């Protein structure tokens, strides 16, 4: 039986397909053959009929998801990544795959999302990997839902039109995070230096930065630091559990030979204003007569905490948006807090409506999070610090930023970036009982656009 399984696996790999096996059931062995571009495939069944090894094979359409991986052949020059280290989640996949594509280095990731209650690839992670496979013109092996190991062999990043679709409420912004650095280092195609990426799924999802954070925190910071041409457009919001959201990115690649400059973000300044941007959609719009709506309570509770913690001299402005059926799919409510400082830094925090928590709880928690990051004295919030790590590693020279204590996501991002690029990070802890922030510095490798082919 093992001989047959090995032969089939080898044949599948030579045809550019994917191969995974299920646990055995009695004398039957089940395995999956699927295409690189579709979720569907075939389930094959082989039964050992006698001691001489006669076998019977049958096929039927696949609708299964629980299976046991067969590791595809790993290129000799592949970098091995342990998906269970530190954060142990999807971030390891996103950063590893993005840097693999940029550095043109094959990777083999094992123990994928071992730190999660449902380990292995989920639809949103698979969508991200397939997007990066398309961006790099490469080849992804092991790209099946629930797979705990993958191999990505990138080719050359090229400008073009691409699509990433989680098919669920999985986060669009996490797809954007993975794609952004790759698009900057893509090569022009037939004189076209602009790429367009259509992203579909959840725009405002739990455990991920909402689309507003991308629009008002991440992208403005990247434009400020690198003077790059990035445009985003929110077509429609989408929420748990159905998703249905849609957004797009337009990114101009660096000129041939161009590099990301090193940056210094160490002067935070004083907070000059805070904007509270709250929205509601579907059945959560409006409120009952004589009662504050859900979104009103969300914003008011956040404003109360901010005023109490920062003083009433800080300019706090609130803006409400009632989404239409065209601008949002499903029911949802959320809020983004954006603090701007005298040095031009922007820090953010967000709240997304969820079952089991009141609007007041969510609003107060988001405001308290922002207050903590402001008092930490850094130039970036706890979410932006890990998103800038990949850019620090790729930049030309030494970059520095001040922040609150590095999160587990940030420490994980540094480990992956060092392993795949050769960049060197250092973290400086503030003196005990001092009012100083933490400092993260990096000696970037200065990758030039087009340098690696």
Automatic annotation (TrEMBL):
Domain named RNA 3'-terminal phosphate cyclase insert: residues: 268-374
UniProtKB keywords: Ligase, Nucleotide-binding
Enzyme class, spelled out: ligase
Reactions catalysed: a 3'-end 3'-phospho-ribonucleotide-RNA + ATP = a 3'-end 2',3'-cyclophospho-ribonucleotide-RNA + AMP + diphosphate
EC number(s) reported in the record: 6.5.1.4
Regions that span the bilayer: none
RNA 3'-terminal phosphate cyclase domain boundaries: 86-427
Low complexity bias spans: 60-71
Gene3D superfamilies for this protein: RNA 3'-terminal phosphate cyclase domain, RNA 3'-terminal phosphate cyclase, insert domain
Region of interest: Disordered: 53-73
Pfam (any one): RTC
Domain of life: Eukaryota
Listed PANTHER family: RNA 3' TERMINAL PHOSPHATE CYCLASE (PTHR11096), RNA 3'-TERMINAL PHOSPHATE CYCLASE (PTHR11096:SF0)
Family: Belongs to the RNA 3'-terminal cyclase family. Type 1 subfamily.
Name listed for the protein in its UniProt record: RNA 3'-terminal-phosphate cyclase (ATP)
């Amino acid at each position: 039986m093992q001989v047959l399984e090995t032969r089939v696996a080898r044949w599948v790999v030579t045809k550019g397909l994917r191969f995974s096996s299920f646990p055995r059931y009695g004398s039957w062995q089940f395995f999956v053959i699927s295409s690189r571009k579709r979720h569907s495939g075939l389930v094959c069944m082989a039964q050992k009929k006698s001691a001489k090894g006669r076998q019977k094979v049958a096929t039927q359409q696949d609708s299964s998801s629980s299976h046991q991986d067969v590791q595809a052949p790993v290129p000799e020059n592949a970098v091995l990544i342990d998906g269970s280290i530190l954060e142990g989640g999807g971030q390891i996949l996103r950063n590893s795959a993005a840097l693999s594509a940029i550095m043109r280095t094959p990777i083999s990731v094992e123990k994928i999302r071992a730190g999660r209650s449902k380990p292995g690839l989920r639809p949103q992670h698979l969508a991200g990997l397939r997007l990066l496979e398309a961006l790099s013109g490469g080849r992804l092996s092991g790209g099946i839902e629930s797979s705990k190991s993958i191999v990505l062999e990138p080719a050359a990043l090229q400008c073009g039109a691409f699509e990433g679709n989680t098919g669920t409420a999985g986060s669009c912004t996490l797809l954007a995070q993975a794609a952004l650095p790759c698009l900057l280092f893509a090569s022009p195609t037939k004189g076209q230096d602009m790429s367009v990426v259509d992203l579909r799924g959840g725009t405002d999802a739990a455990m991920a930065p909402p689309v507003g954070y991308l629009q008002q925190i991440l992208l403005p910071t990247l434009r400020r630091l690198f003077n790059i041409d990035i445009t985003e457009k929110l077509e429609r919001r989408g929420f748990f559990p159905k998703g249905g959201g849609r957004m797009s990115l337009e990114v101009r690649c660096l000129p041939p030979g161009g590099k990301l400059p090193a940056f210094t973000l160490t002067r935070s300044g004083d907070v000059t204003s805070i904007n509270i941007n709250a929205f509601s959609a579907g059945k959560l719009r409006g409120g009952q007569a004589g009662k504050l709506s859900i979104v009103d309570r969300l914003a008011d509770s956040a404003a109360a905490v901010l005023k109490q913690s920062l003083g009433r001299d800080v300019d706090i402005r609130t803006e409400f948006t009632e989404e239409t059926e065209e601008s949002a799919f499903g029911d949802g409510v959320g809020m983004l807090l954006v603090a701007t400082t005298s040095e031009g830094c922007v820090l953010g925090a967000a709240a997304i409506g969820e079952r089991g928590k009141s609007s007041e709880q969510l609003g107060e928690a988001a405001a308290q999070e922002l207050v903590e990051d402001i008092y930490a004295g850094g130039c970036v919030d706890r979410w932006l610090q890990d998103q800038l790590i990949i850019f620090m590693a790729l930049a030309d020279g030494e970059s520095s930023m001040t922040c609150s204590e590095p999160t587990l996501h940030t420490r994980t991002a540094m480990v992956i970036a060092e392993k795949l690029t050769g960049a060197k990070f250092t973290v400086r802890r503030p003196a005990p009982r001092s009012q100083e922030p933490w400092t993260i510095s990096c000696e970037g490798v200065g990758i030039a656009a087009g340098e690696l082919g």
